[in-house]
Structure formats: structure tokens, C-alpha cells
Write a structure and sequence with these properties.
Blueprint: H1 19-35, E1 39-40, E2 46-48, H2 49-56, H3 61-65, E3 68-72, E4 75-79, H4 84-93, E5 102-111, E6 123-132, H5 137-154, E7 161-166, H6 170-184, H7 193-201, H8 212-218, H9 230-245, E8 251-252, E9 264-271, E10 280-286, H10 290-293, E11 301-307, H11 308-317, E12 330-334, H12 339-353, E13 359-361, H13 368-378, E14 382-386, H14 388-393, E15 395-400, E16 408-411, H15 412-422
Parallel strand pairs: 1-5, 7-8, 12-13, 12-14
Antiparallel strand pairs: 2-4, 3-4, 5-6, 6-11, 7-9, 9-10, 10-11, 14-15, 15-16
Helix pairs in contact: 1-5, 5-9
The protein binds histidyl-adenosine monophosphate.
Length: about 425
């Protein structure tokens, strides 16, 4: 036998038994986003590499070590590691946000060359939202309220909690950065080589280090919230008041800075303790400077993205029973001279008149016994049976595969009404 070829590590297949849960989760996401009046956009999976370097930041983990980048003749291209950069690029390119507000969403695969583990993959899927043109904290609140509604729909609201912070303006962050570096320089003995490098390149990322000794020291470090500019402080206060007024609980986490450079003011993450180390199911924030930074007319932006693998895992973990519909409702079996044509015609008629039902035609031959075995295996609740005598008499036998009800022989023109009465 020839050697088999396996999927790339960290890139997963979705099996026929897993896809109903995925479809259900995606349908809940779509329903919530539509109910807030947001519009779907679809961007390419491949973008020019400098887009990500400029948007996300050269010194971030994503850009400095996790991107799948390749040369296409003399152009450097990258499989998108996230959706915000491409969405902003598209919005500028097509003038979507020129003197206009937009509330957009997208869903699809993203790629990061990370070490795979439960909840962390090299190809993963995000559902993301980007809102352009609205500077008020009302929209930050709406995004958080929208996600809270989704958690309820998915049945995971008791298993996630909200972390919130404001990282202020660029200038405020620069002041804070100096204070943090001055503080951390005294504790270099506790740092790994990587952390020492971060101290120079991206010191704010040290705030979410997993190094416990350093975390203990960080409790005494200067707090970003104390360095906020007045405008960011007011924005954050209004956001917190709005969340309080609708009863959304949150924890202000002064160490939450997020791993991408484009943020300012609000940042947030929804986290869970039910998935082990990869506990962030959704993250986002404001990025008021990004549109201009990528060459557009200045426009505020705010958004988030959730990891669909993590949501699917969490739904499974909390044993939420979901209304998954079997793919096949009706199985058509046939045997004998001239029966194939009648079976095809019948199956097509059912599909035309009752398109919400899954109708499967047997196709692979064999006697009725073998065909009924397949019908049972398909999970269908009705079998439509056509033998030579049914063809002659223009009839169909309807058999209930779950038992209980006697099988019926019906005239062909009555079959549709009968099926309809059974679902
Ligand atoms: P992010 O925090 O990098 O933000 O990713 C958002 C979510 O994607 C994470 O919270 C996580 O659920 C999921 N995720 C990230 N990496 C992986 C991975 N390797 N495997 C599985 N799931 C993963 C962003 O991507 C921003 N673009 C979000 C945003 C939109 N901010 C503003 N607008």
C-alpha cells in the first residue's frame, strides 16, 4: 500500500460527526450578529506581508515568529494570522468608511505558527467584528453586550468571565512604558532571556508573563490605569457605567494589554477556566489610529474576534445538549426492473416540495435487506420503498424506521402530503 499523507500538525479536519455542532455554533453567531444589524464581509486569506507588519506591529509574537509567509515571484505574502488588518485594508481600499459608519463581521480560517496544544492550533477559525466611525463608548459596550448574548445562546455564559482594561492613548502608554521599564530593570535577575528581550522591544507584554516570580513582583509595578490621559479615563468610566447599568459583570485587569500593537483605550477578553491553558475565547478592543496608520482618512475603530475551536470545545465541555438535526430524514430504497427511474423521480419530487428535509437515495444497489440496513444506519425516520409492483401500480410503500407505526402503501400523488404530516 502507498504511504499515507497526513494533515499538517495543528491543522484539523472537521468530521461529519463534528460538523453539526460547528454549524450550530456558527448559526448562533450569525443570528446574534444579524440581530444587531451588522453586515458580513469576506476578505482574502492571503494578504501582502507588510500589511500585517504595519498593522499588528513588527515586535509582536504574531508578526515576529508566527506568520506563514512566502514569496510569490517578487511579492511577499502571508496567510492571514487575524482578520482586523485585512478588514481595515478592504475598508480603506473600497471606501466603506469614507464619511461613513460600518458595523461589519467576518468568519473564517486564520493561521499562526504556534506550538499546537488543546485550544491552540496553526489553522484556527475566528468570528470577528469590526466597527468603524464610532468613537463613543456606547459601541464598546454594545460589542460586549452582543458577545454576552451569544454566550447565553451557546449555553456557556456561566463558564466565561470578562476582563476589562484601558490602555489609553499612545502618549499615555509611552509614559507608562518608561515607568514600567524603570521598575522592571531592577528585577532583571528574575527574567528569562526572552523576557529581557521583551523589556527592550515590547515591555508591556511582560505584564502577562507566565513567570510566577515575575508576576509576584509585578503586583507592585506601576499601573497603566494611573497613567491614563483624561479622555481615555472618561471613556473607560462611561463604558464601565454602561456595563454596570445592564448588569454585565467584569473584572478590571490592569495587566491586560493584549498581544497586538494596534489597540488604544478599551481592551477586553472573555476567559474561561474550563479549557486549560488556552482560556481566552474572545478578545478585542479599540484601535482608533489604525485606519490612518494604514493610509486611510482617520476613523475610529473597535472590534473583537472569538476563537471558534475554543467555543466548540467549551460547548462540549459544559455538556450543553444542542438541537442537532440528523442529516437524513428520508431514505429511498428500490429494487427491480424499472424501479431506479421511479425512485429518482420520487426523491427529486420530495426535495423540490420539502427542501428542509434531507432525502437520500440509496444508489449503491443490493437487495432490500442490505438497503434497509443502510437506511437504518443513516438515522432516517422514514423509508420510501419502491419495488416492481409499486411501479406498476403507481404506489410507494412508506416504512417508519423507528418502529411503532404500521407501514403504509400510498398512491404516489399522496406521498408528499403524508410525509409532510410526519415531520
Ligand atoms: P486575538 O486575541 O489574537 O485577537 O485572537 C482572538 C481569538 O482568536 C482568541 O481569543 C482565541 O480565542 C482565538 N485564537 C487566537 N489564536 C488562536 C490559535 N492559535 N488557536 C485557536 N484559537 C486562537 C485578534 O485576532 C484580533 N484581530 C481581535 C480584534 C478584532 N481586535 C479588534 N478587532
Amino acid at each position: 500500500m502507498a504511504k499515507t499523507i497526513q494533515a499538517i500538525r495543528g491543522m484539523n479536519d472537521c468530521s461529519p460527526t463534528e460538523s453539526p455542532l460547528w454549524q450550530w455554533v456558527e448559526a448562533q453567531v450569525r443570528e446574534v450578529l444579524n440581530s444587531y444589524g451588522y453586515s458580513e464581509v469576506r476578505m482574502p486569506i492571503v494578504e501582502s506581508t507588510p500589511l500585517f507588519a504595519r498593522a499588528i506591529g513588527e515586535v509582536t509574537d504574531v508578526v515576529s515568529k508566527e506568520m506563514y509567509t512566502f514569496w510569490d515571484n517578487d511579492e511577499q505574502l502571508t496567510l492571514r494570522p487575524e482578520g482586523t488588518a485585512g478588514c481595515v485594508r478592504a475598508a480603506i481600499e473600497h471606501g466603506w468608511i469614507y464619511n461613513n459608519e460600518q458595523r461589519l463581521w467576518y468568519m473564517g480560517p486564520m493561521f499562526r505558527h504556534e506550538r499546537p496544544q488543546k485550544g491552540r492550533y496553526r489553522q484556527f477559525h475566528q468570528a470577528g467584528v469590526e466597527v468603524f466611525g464610532i468613537a463613543n463608548p456606547e459601541i464598546d459596550a454594545e460589542l460586549i453586550i452582543l458577545t454576552a448574548r451569544l454566550w447565553k445562546k451557546l449555553g456557556i455564559d456561566q463558564h466565561v468571565s470578562l476582563q476589562l482594561n484601558s490602555i489609553g492613548s499612545l502618549a499615555a502608554r509611552a509614559n507608562y512604558r518608561s515607568a514600567l521599564v524603570a521598575f522592571l530593570e531592577k528585577h532583571q535577575d528574575l527574567m528569562s532571556e526572552e523576557e529581557k528581550e521583551r523589556l527592550v522591544k515590547n515591555p508591556l507584554r511582560i505584564l502577562d508573563t507566565k513567570n510566577q516570580a515575575l508576576q509576584d513582583v509585578l503586583d507592585g509595578a506601576p499601573k497603566l490605569l494611573d497613567y491614563l490621559d483624561d479622555e481615555s479615563r472618561e471613556h473607560f468610566g462611561q463604558l464601565c457605567a454602561l456595563l454596570d447599568s445592564v448588569g454585565i459583570r467584569y473584572e478590571i485587569n490592569p495587566k491586560l494589554v493584549r498581544g497586538l500593537d494596534y489597540y488604544n483605550k478599551t481592551v477586553f477578553e472573555w476567559i474561561t477556566s474550563a479549557l486549560g491553558a488556552q482560556g481566552t475565547v474572545c478578545g478585542g478592543g479599540r484601535y482608533d489610529g489604525l485606519v490612518e496608520q494604514l493610509g486611510g482618512h482617520s476613523a475610529p475603530g473597535v472590534g473583537f474576534a472569538m476563537g471558534l475551536e475554543r467555543l466548540v470545545l467549551l460547548v462540549q465541555e459544559v455538556n450543553r445538549s444542542i438541537p442537532v438535526k440528523n442529516a437524513v430524514d428520508i431514505y429511498v430504497v428500490y429494487q427491480g426492473e424499472g424501479t431506479a427511474l421511479s425512485a429518482f423521480q420520487l426523491a427529486e419530487k420530495v426535495r423540490s416540495t420539502l427542501p428542509h428535509l434531507g432525502t437520500m437515495l440509496h444508489c449503491s444497489g443490493g437487495n432490500f435487506k442490505k438497503q434497509f440496513k443502510r437506511a437504518d444506519k443513516s438515522g432516517a425516520s422514514l423509508a420510501l420503498v419502491i419495488g416492481e409492483s409499486e411501479v406498476l401500480n403507481n404506489q410507494v410503500v412508506v416504512k417508519h424506521l423507528n418502529g411503532g407505526v404500521e407501514q403504509q402503501t400510498l398512491d404516489t400523488e399522496k406521498v408528499i402530503d403524508y410525509i409532510q404530516s410526519q415531520f
